[in-house]
Amino acid sequence: MKKLIYISFLILFISSSADSQYWVEQTSGVTVQLTSVSPISPQNVWVCGYSGTVLRTTNGGTNWLNVSGGGIPNTVSLVSIWGIDAVTALTAGYVGTDTWVWRTSNAGANWVQVFSQPGGFINGIVMKKNQPLHGFIQGDPVGGRWSLWKTLNGGINWDSTGMYLPQAGAEAGWNNSIFIASQSLFTESDSLLWFGTNNTRVYHSTNFGTTWTAQSTAPEVNTYALGFLYYGEGNGLAGGTSLMKTSNYGMNWTSQTSVGTGNFSGFVLFPAPVDYGYSWYTRNTTSIYKGSGGANWAIEYTAPAGNYRHFTNVRNGTVCFGVRSNGGITRCNYFFSGITQTGSNTPEKFSLSQNYPNPFNPFTIIKFSVSGTSAVQTFLTVYDAVGREITKLVNQQLQPGTYEADWDASAYPSGVYYYKLESGDFKETKKMVLIK
Predict the structure, then answer these.
(1) How far apart are CA 377 and CA 422, in angstroms?
(2) Residue 353 DSSP code
(3) Torsions phi, psi of 15, nearest 5?
(4) 327 CA to centre of own chain
(5) pLDDT for position 54
(6) Phi, psi (5° rounding) for residue 377?
(7) What is the pTM of this model?
(8) What proportion of the chain, given as a percentage, has pLDDT over 70?
(9) CATH no. for 340-434
(10) Cα–Cα distance, 347 to 402 (Å, whole number)
């Protein structure tokens, strides 16, 4: 099934003639600096920040629950979080020169300290997709060696045996500058790791942290953020104050033209048949930037206030979240719609057909007709059962003709959805059912 879903993604990218994004500001209920976000699914997301702050949502951010305290002191600056599931999460933070990791197994009601290190600083936490209780934390060097630890029981215990990586000079790492990916195109092996440094290099492991290779990022000194395509394609982006790109798992990093200023703070990449598809990055500013093929960057969205500190996507699906320095949270529902014109003859009237197949899982096709004598602004929008807008499959000027639009609902739960066509003065809505 994973193979079929991935191939379907590629087919959609090949035929894609338009894409649409829907950026939504959410109410977090806090104003402290938020530093890390971990979206498990479009519905279940964990966030952490300064003053021991932890937030979680189970409805995609419509409501954020403050689950701070419960064992985490409010003097701690939390800098990284990883949600294992809707009730289990790990978060790392520091006070002064000491660092800790806490774990909850009851949705944040209580937090148990599972790791501590005097003189240390944990930068990031990652867990495997196919083995979600197997994980890895990476921290700044202590005693001349990088702090690298594994868990096989969901973060209850941590072990650094066999993971010796000596510190070079006075090098250190950066918050959330760590990434886990699969080396195989069709399986979730989760054997690849990268983490960034302040020493003109990225460290890379092909065996989940047992051995490491230094990859040069010269002339860029810092790697504040990095991201790769997950399924074994070797394409990645990294940034300090300038942007770098690789197409061979980081064996070679080359400088790229970017826009904006400030330190990079997050990347989201999605595939295409050749090279990258669409990609996004954030810097330590209020803007989110979009590009294609790892290039052609432009501002796509600007938040009302607060600089982005972390930006990433859900593990399976096309929804991403960004968190900011003022407590702000941005959600983006995006979909690369495979819009195909199936006929150029002018239809007698506007129409919207029933999607097929219906019920469906997870892909469906929606046919519609645009009438008239000239191009008309057309919207095809998907709503959930209570009328909340999920995504726009079409948002563009269309010439008269007949069309098909695809929807990939792999990131959404089973249930009733509605899709609405608005073209000129024509409006019509139909129901569809997703069954997983």
Answers:
(1) 8
(2) P
(3) -90, 0
(4) 18
(5) 98
(6) -65, 125
(7) 0.76
(8) 89
(9) 2.60.40.1930
(10) 7
Q: Which two tokens stand for residue 208?
A: 């989940």
What is the domain partition of the chain in residue ranges?
20-335, 340-434
Q: How far apart are CA 113 and CA 278, in angstroms?
A: 39
Q: Residue 218's CB: how many other CB atoms inside 10 A?
A: 10
Q: Residues 322, 328, 329, 332: is their CA dihedral positive or negative?
A: negative
20-335 and 340-434 share one CATH topology? no
- In the sheet that holds 340-343, the strands lie side by side as 340-343, 401-408, 363-370, 351-352
pLDDT value for 295:
82
pLDDT digits (tens, 9 = 90+) for 227-262: 998 766 788 999 999 999 999 999 999 999 999 999
Q: What pLDDT is attached to residue 274?
A: 41
Structure tokens that stand for 364 in this block? 């469906």
Mean pLDDT across the chain: 88
Of 97-111, 202-216, 257-271, 403-417, the least confident? 403-417
Considering the segment(s) 20-335 as one domain, its CATH architecture is 7 Propeller (2.130)
CA–CA distances in Å: residue 131 to residues 106, 149, 193: 20, 16, 15
Tokens of 280: 């996004």
DSSP-assigned letter for residue 347: P
Residues paired with 404 in a beta bridge: 340, 367
- In sign, the C-alpha dihedral spanning 54, 59, 64, 70 is negative
Model confidence at 123, pLDDT cuts 50, 70, 90, reads very high
Angle (nearest 5°) at CA 422 between 417 and 427: 85
